[in-house]
Design goal:
Distance between the termini of chain A: 11 Å
Number of helices of chain A: 3
Strand order of the largest sheet of chain A: 1-4-5-6-3
Number of strands of chain A: 8
Structural class of chain A: alpha+beta
Largest interface: A-D, 26 and 26 residues
Order of helices and strands of chain A: EHHEEEEEEEH
Radius of gyration of chain A: 16 Å
Shape of chain A: globular
Low-confidence stretches of chain A: none
Helix content of chain A: 10-25%
Oligomer: homotetramer
């Protein structure tokens, strides 16, 4: 069974642009978070139960992004998520964002997130279900 | 001692405009909420302690707004808050929003908020400290 | 041919809740706007071309909302859009928002929007294509 | 004349937390942008005129961030902005974010922004007024 990137689509909303007429840069990070949440839907109860019932979260410890081209209202993006590394508690996620209509690469974003007990706000070892799910998206 | 409106100032942020180049209408409601929060700073511990320690909140039950003129990036607004009515659990707040540079009236917003026990999410009777503070902003 | 409400679905995002742990009230207005935009997708080029190429927008002149129940992270909503009135330049849209899992009514929102020339920011008479599309969603 | 960091203060808003009860990570990038905008207020007409009248912007080309501690509703932050490098068109800005009540370091953010003609969306050489202002914030 071959590993595959997780794919996510987002349509730029009317309120996601800024006074320069292009998508506000901070919006990209939210889309990447939402792509991660969608990828975790395969967990029992999804990301929602992870947070609300198991009191586990995946806050960002490190973020980096390169922006190559602006997006405008009316654009859609495809986000391809791959898992670069699974650590003791941390996961490195790579998001490649391209404009849907012409596959232009618009941004590359990397999130290092840490599995965290939300009550104590402390890192916890990766759970088995998360590790299995994440491993499916490690490129070969 | 004469009642007086509470005054709040907001500078339009770069990311508060939309694809039409004017401030996105939903932003106004957030500013009004922030003006209410600032008005409640006079409570011991302010709005923050009300929510985080006393587990009380003021969610909106009813909102209405009339928009008279668009705002753009670079504009500032003055918001004048008055209390129209204090009920058993509810408060009716009136927000008059004007553009700072020329006092142009840009919107009138009314929020009916309900003092709510956030754990049970049920209305609770108005507390004395809130009633006293709110009464200061009822026009004569 | 019978008129029908337009239906739109939204899944509450991780960042749409507030410090009280429920969806921030101002988010509902954005969802209603997005539902309107989706309804207008049937126009040639959709809402996007209306704004970007025809330089026409539908800013809100009046908004009112009643909130009946809180939403939490993990909830999804169904929004049913109907057109209450088509005026010379204005349209009154009614949004009934219910929680997907149990059809609980969570909010009713009404937007009066005005067809506006975005360059001059002046009302313009309703266009034929908009009038025809909107009329499909007037309840009988 | 000694160079000095630019200082900016932000109070966490009610709607800036997420379903994990802490400030949503993407909010930090917006605060840094706002700190940059405030730093540019010293330009004639400020950041607003730069964008609206001179049609110049400073979109991000690269962003990186390390998050050290969570923030909650009720927290305030101090942001210290320094200029690490001024290039032909680009500027590297370093933002050190600390919690106001105890000076706890909560995040370090770096933005590489590029002076851009917003009509053509192309880099342009740094203007003199920007270069002079930015140079004031290069640490010695």
């Amino acid at each position: 069974l071959s590993a595959a990137p997780f794919r996510y689509v987002h349509e730029v909303r009317f309120d996601e642009v800024d006074a320069a007429g292009v998508v506000y840069f901070a919006r990209f990070f939210g889309w990447c978070h939402d792509a991660m949440a969608a990828m975790l839907a395969e967990l029992e109860g999804g990301y929602q139960r992870l947070v609300s019932e198991r009191s586990l979260g995946l806050p960002a410890a490190h973020v980096e992004a390169d922006f190559a081209a602006p997006l405008r209202f009316g654009d859609s993006v495809r986000i391809e998520v791959t898992v670069e590394r699974i650590g003791e508690s941390s996961v490195t996620l790579l998001f490649r964002i391209e404009r849907a209509r012409d596959s232009l690469s618009v941004a590359t974003v990397r999130h290092v997130v840490v599995l965290t007990d939300l009550a104590a706000f402390r890192p916890v070892p990766m759970t088995d279900d998360l590790r299995i799910l994440l491993a499916k998206h490690i490129p070969e």
